[in-house]
Structures are given as structure tokens and as C-alpha cells.
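Justification of computing resources. Each target in the renewal requires a structure prediction run like the one illustrated here; the chain below, 544 residues long, is used simply to show the kind of job we budget for.
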Amino acid sequence: MHIPGSITSRGGYTAAALAAVLCTTLTTAPGRAPADGPPPSVPATPLEWSPCSGFEAFDCAVTKVPLDYRDPGARSLDLALVRKKATGPGPRKGSLFFNPGGPGGSGTEALVTLYEQFPVELRERFDIIGWDPRGVGASTAVRCFDTTEEVFRWAEPIPAGFPVGQEERTTFVDAYADLGRRCEKRDPELLRHISTADTARDLDRLREAVGEEQLNYLGVSYGSLLGATYANLFPDKVRAMVLDGAIDPEAWLNGGSKSEPLLGTLQRDGTDLGAAATLEQFLTLCGKATVDRCPFSAGDPEATRTKFTRLMERLQQAPQEAWTYGATVATVLQGLYVVDPQWSELAVTLQDLWQGRTPQEATVPEDPPPYPALEQIEAIRCSESPNPRDPLRYPSLEQFSYERAGDLGRLLAWSIEPCATWPATAAQPYTGPWNRPTAHPVLVVNTTYDPATAYTQAEALTRRLADARLLTVHGYGHSAFSNLSSCADDHQTRYFLDGVLPPPGATCSQDDEPFSTPIPRGGIDSGGGGMGTGNPATARPDAG
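Resulting C-alpha cells:
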């Protein structure tokens, strides 16, 4: 699960909730955006860096970009950036831009939180830069409420995870229609200029601002869509680009079609199928493990799958305190994102529920909660990724996904429903083509069982790009960045430093197998207590 502004980490899940978890030719197809992005008419201003307050090891900067690149002299937006300079030894190689996903992920927060996850040689040789894309975080942001307390009041009646039954469906639909109206009232102009293409144009301006002739870029999850968009808007500016946890852009954008789609985004791109396959692996491996390693094990895979089904059926009949069926399904998807330690935490939570105990809740920080920014993922995704516009269609979409993907399919079908009533459409989306020849090849990376960006999406993206190589990580969880594979790290390091791709068909394994060690007495120390149910309004899947 995901809070806009962060992604999962190897040492623990940095998100407290699930916000709402994608054959072209060289010519432009009818109805598609022009291939060339409009360049800024004024050169980018060099950035003025200074130590970040409270995080003096990092540098901060703010720069301005045009709201509309077709009219660069009109309204401008602020972009917030954070940099960690190359540590050495060895000569500095350049700047490496990092996007953690989302959409709506804060690159500034993610860089500070996740910096140690970058391979050592990349930290030594590159200045690593994260930024908050337009509409997000500390940049000029979509913000539809005055205070955090107002957000929580709005979210309180929304059913956790997804709605069950007509009454909850009405509450869910009405709440997100109200959210759209609130956002439209606040800043309708901004809502139409926060597309992936707008952010790709910003990224090229940032590349120029730090003095790089070509771009070095790591994009995770939704960041892969941003990278693919940049690579086709500015193909001659690509030096090295890793797209980890890949989104198929054709599925995300419904092929650029002007017609209303039959399926939602996360059904078109197969996210529901990928999530179900990952859950199947979780239950299979748990069933093969002893209960000291996976407490939910029923002794073998088939019995463990049956146990899970019976638990879901029981919760549909009657919730266990705050643990409704919808909240539990959302927690299951959250728990699949990061293998260590989250798979073990999920096993403990499921066993607690099975035995009638209330699972341990996540520790609540004493400091006042930050503004949750839950509207930012919807503002970006709904403005450019087409979804059915009639809320009355979503019960049938839920049934469609349930029949092919089980309980997680229900959650993923409803996670897109806010787009049904979203008021804004992107003014300048990029919908292809996706095969413009780049100056250097692109490296795509994906785990074989990814609950948020199915492996089939990585295969599709690799085919669509003009010059891309796929590195397959045999393993589990959302992205190789969040689930350690030293082999994958080594391949990416060689690629960023020397431009050397893995050989065709290369594969890697993850460093640790799920449920390979006993859970310590006293439980799992993940730095924040149990998994909890998260914020009911944000307990939904994102693109990553």
C-alpha cells in the first residue's frame, strides 16, 4: 500500500496506507499527440542549491516551470528538488534523476528515505536527484482541502478498501464525486496540466538546469511510464534509463483511443491478474513453510489456500472489529509489495484474524499527521488514463475481476472508480508512438511476481520501445528496487556507469527467499509496529 509521496523500501514498508496501487509505428496514429514535445522557449535557469533544513546531508532547490509549455510566458509552477551529491571515491559521472512512482509520489521525500537503497557505486559516482512532480508534495500541488483534519472528516464515512453492498457503494461513489468537485473548484487550470507528458517536459528542463547533455534516470512503477514518455518526447537526450516495475503505456492510455473504454486501467493492464498470481505464490510458499516461518501455514499449499478462502468468506459475513472484508483485502495487497519483512507481517496478521485476535495496529506517531495528499494520485491518473464514466458499471467490473483474479480483483476494480466522476482531462497528454529510436538503449527490470505492475507489462513495454532490454528478476514484490537482488543491482550499476546492458534473456534471483527464516520471538521489528488497516480513504491500489 502506498501514501502518495513514497514507495516501499527493502528494510520496511515506508507507506502507511494503500492509495489508490500499463505494436506502434514511427508515424503518428490518428488522434494521437504529436511526437515532438514543445521545447521551452526560454533556457532553463541553473539551480541554486542549499542545505535542506533538518537534512543537512542533502541539498534543496526550487525552480520554476511553465504551467503550459505552449504558453511559457503565462503562469508558472514551482518544482521542489532534493540532491545528494556524489560521495566518491572516483570521478563524478553526472546527475541521476529518480522518480519513485505513484502517480503522486514525492521524489524529495523518497530520496531522503530511500537513499541507502541505491547501489554503493551509484552513490559514489552520481549526484542523485529527486523532485516532486508538478501537482505533488512541496511543488505547486493539487490540494483540495484546507487542513488535514478536513481530509480525515471527508474520508471517515468511506468504506475501507472497497465498498461492499449498495449502501457502501453509494457512499463511496458520492464521496469521490465530491472530491472531484472540490478539486475542480480549487484550481481547474492546474488539474489540466499535470499529465505525465507535462512532467516529462519538466524533467527535460531539469536536465538542462543541472548542466547535463543527456539524461540519466531511474523510474520505479509509475516512474517507468514517465521514463517511457520522456524517451519518446526527447529520444536524443537519453543516456541511461532504467524502468523498474514497468507500466505498459498503451494499456495506461487505452491506445490513445477517444472512445470510452470497456475496462478500467488496472484491468486493461492485467494488474488484477498479476496481484492474484502473487497472492497465489504467497499462499503456496507459506503452505510449504513451517508455522514458525509462516504462521498462517495450514501444512501444505492447498490447505493454506483453502484457509485463506474461508477467512475471506467469514469476514464477508461479519467484520472482526475494524477488520472488514474490504479492509483486509486491501491489507493483503499492501503486504505483497515488499517480501522482507512484509510477507511475514502479513502472515502474522492473517493468522491473528483466523484465530479471532485483533491484529496489532501500526504505531501512531505522536507528531501531527502530515497532509495526506490523497487527491494527487487521482488528479494525475484520472486526467489521462481513460476509465468507464458511469459509476453504475463498477459492480459488473468488480464481478469481472473477481471471476478472474479473486478477492484482490474486487479491490482493484473499485480503485479506479474515482475516475468515473473526475472533472478534468489532460490538455496535452502523450499517447504515442512509443518506438522512437533513442540515443542509447533503455533497460527494463521486473520481478516475475509483481502485485502492482505485472511481469507481462514489462514484456509489453520492452517490445514497444525502439531499443530496450528486459532484465527478469525471478522473485516477488513490487519492483527490484524495493526487493533486494544484488544481481540486478550489479547489472544496473554497470549500465549506468559504462552503458553495458545485461545479455539478452538475462535473469537474476532475489537475495532472500520468502519465509526462509523463523520469525523472531516477540514478533517482527519493521520500525513501525504492525501492518494496521491504514487510512480508509487511501486504502486502494496505485500504479506504483
